[in-house]
């Protein structure tokens, strides 16, 4: 089949048709709240800085505290979902995230806000890590699963651009506190619906994976790694002593984790999961695609703000075409494309469209016209994302045993988060370096634009590498065999 049709004995797959879709909408609402929070906060950072007196360097911790907790805990949270029950972990994450959002809104000091943002990251990881695993058990039938994953992929990938608009509206119309307070009614409603609509799953039990040393090692490795990317690497450079030391610590922790998992009787992350070429390839593609896409949304926003003079609300409106196109494809057509052509062809086609869009962005000039120089790029990114991300999410879960669904869900989320953080740090550093190198010979806006152009070109190359992996690695032999034997209604893909 296109994805696993097995479920645990008492999973929500037994729910009725209508209630399953209502459960999906609830899961997507939880994911949307998490995704929106990232870009909503970015838009409000200047107002937060003015109100609480952050310096430019300390202001970064409003974002970094969240990213470190979120990226560091995704993998562990996904495995906890398998062990403790995915609905339990999902609802616990919503409670933590919602409570931390209220604390963020009430924050009257820098310290309280940063601590609350870290707690938000914990809740976000618990909530989002298990969603994809829950979806594949709710929808075991290939056609329905493709449609459900399309909806999830749209929320996960395009929700950030909605956050740009929401952040601009809330910050300008009321104040920055409300970008957090708005999570209270959404979170409370989502918790209530989750308890009512999502059938409780038992989980495997802690005895099947109580690997405390492994949990400590992987969580520490991911947190140190994300911290290295967003703090010393971004602020001091990739060759600074602090960056090199922390990178070495990350590698040592990862090596210790792998050694532990290879010998543990009940490993937190069974290494056998990486024997799947499909799963491993999907995660590599996710990391590369997130590196290119997330960095460009950030740097593209800076281009609109610093070069074209857009304000926060105008930036949010500018990115709406990406959201609209991606939403239309993800919700209405991505499942049909996957069922007609299989997941690999839409994945390659979508990634290729993203490469073309990023390459086109390198031509956006100083004083560029939105309709001529920006809109075509955003439409291409929307087309590409709407086609490739649903296929990628499906592939990431297609060769996974039911008892590992939460782990696989957390893994794809982790790769996306780490890839996004790494891509943003690398692309922002390259843009700043290029701008500084030509600042003495070019006007300020031209120097800025040169830096952005270099980053857009590098982002295109990164996503092109993802295309290469999709072409060479993602050859779903199991699916092909099932198609040929008549067990699946997915059209065979070309080798």
Automatic annotation (TrEMBL):
The keyword Chaperone does not apply. Residues 23-478 form the Major facilitator superfamily (MFS) profile domain. Keywords: Cell membrane, Membrane, Transmembrane, Transmembrane helix, Transport. GO terms for cellular component: plasma membrane. It comes from the Bacteria. NCBIfam families: efflux_EmrB. This is EmrB/QacA subfamily drug resistance transporter. One of its GO terms (molecular function) is transmembrane transporter activity. The chain crosses the membrane at residues 21-47, 59-77, 89-108, 114-139, 151-170, 176-198, 210-230, 236-259, 280-303, 315-334, 346-364, 370-395, 407-432, 452-473. It comes from Kribbella shirazensis. PANTHER family: BLR6921 PROTEIN, MAJOR FACILITATOR SUPERFAMILY MULTIDRUG TRANSPORTER MFSC. It is found in: Cell membrane. InterPro entries: EmrB-like (IPR004638), MFS (IPR011701), MFS_dom (IPR020846), MFS_trans_sf (IPR036259).
């Amino acid at each position: 089949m296109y994805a696993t049709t097995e479920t645990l004995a008492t999973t929500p797959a037994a729910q009725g048709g209508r209630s399953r879709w209502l459960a999906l909408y609830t899961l997507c609402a939880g994911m949307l709240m998490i995704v929106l929070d990232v870009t909503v906060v970015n838009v409000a950072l200047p107002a937060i800085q003015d109100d609480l007196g952050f310096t430019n360097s300390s202001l970064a911790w409003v974002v970094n505290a969240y990213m470190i907790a979120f990226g560091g805990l995704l993998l562990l949270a996904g495995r906890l979902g398998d062990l403790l029950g995915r609905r339990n972990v999902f609802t616990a994450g919503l409670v933590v995230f919602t409570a931390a959002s209220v604390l963020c809104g009430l924050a009257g000091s820098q310290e309280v806000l940063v601590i609350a943002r870290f707690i938000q990251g914990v809740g976000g990881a618990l909530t989002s890590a298990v969603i994809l695993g829950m979806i594949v058990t709710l929808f075991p039938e290939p056609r329905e699963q493709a449609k459900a994953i399309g909806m999830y992929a749209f929320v996960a990938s395009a929700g950030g651009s909605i956050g740009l608009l929401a952040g601009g509206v809330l910050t300008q119309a009321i104040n920055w506190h409300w970008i957090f307070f708005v999570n209270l009614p959404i979170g409370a409603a989502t918790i209530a619906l989750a308890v009512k609509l999502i059938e409780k799953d038992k989980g495997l039990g802690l005895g099947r994976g109580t690997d405390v040393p492994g949990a400590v090692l992987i969580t520490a490795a991911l947190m140190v790694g994300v911290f290295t990317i967003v703090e010393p690497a971004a602020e001091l450079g990739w060759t600074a002593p602090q960056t090199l030391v922390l990178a070495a610590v990350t590698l040592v922790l990862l090596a210790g984790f792998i050694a532990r998992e290879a010998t543990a009787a009940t490993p937190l992350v069974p290494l056998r999961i990486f024997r799947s070429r499909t799963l491993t390839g999907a995660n590599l593609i996710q990391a590369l695609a997130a590196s290119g896409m997330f960095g460009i949304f950030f740097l593209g926003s800076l281009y609109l703000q610093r070069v074209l003079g857009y304000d926060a609300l105008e930036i949010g409106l500018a990115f709406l075409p990406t959201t609209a196109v991606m939403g239309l494809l993800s919700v209405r057509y991505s499942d049909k494309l996957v069922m007609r052509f299989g997941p690999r062809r839409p994945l390659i086609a979508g990634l290729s469209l993203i490469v073309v869009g990023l390459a086109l962005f390198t031509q956006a000039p100083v004083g560029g016209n939105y309709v001529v120089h920006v809109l075509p790029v955003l439409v291409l990114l929307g087309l590409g994302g709407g086609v490739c991300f649903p296929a990628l999410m499906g592939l990431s879960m297609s060769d996974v045993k039911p008892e590992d669904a939460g782990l696989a869900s957390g893994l794809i989320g982790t790769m996306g988060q780490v890839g996004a953080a790494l891509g943003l740090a690398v692309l922002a550093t390259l843009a700043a370096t290029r701008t500084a190198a030509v600042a003495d010979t070019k006007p300020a806006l031209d120097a800025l634009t040169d830096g952005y152009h270099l980053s857009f070109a590098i982002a295109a190359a990164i996503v092109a590498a993802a295309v290469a992996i999709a072409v060479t690695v993602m050859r779903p032999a199991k699916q092909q065999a099932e198609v040929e034997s008549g067990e699946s209604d997915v059209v065979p893909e070309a080798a």
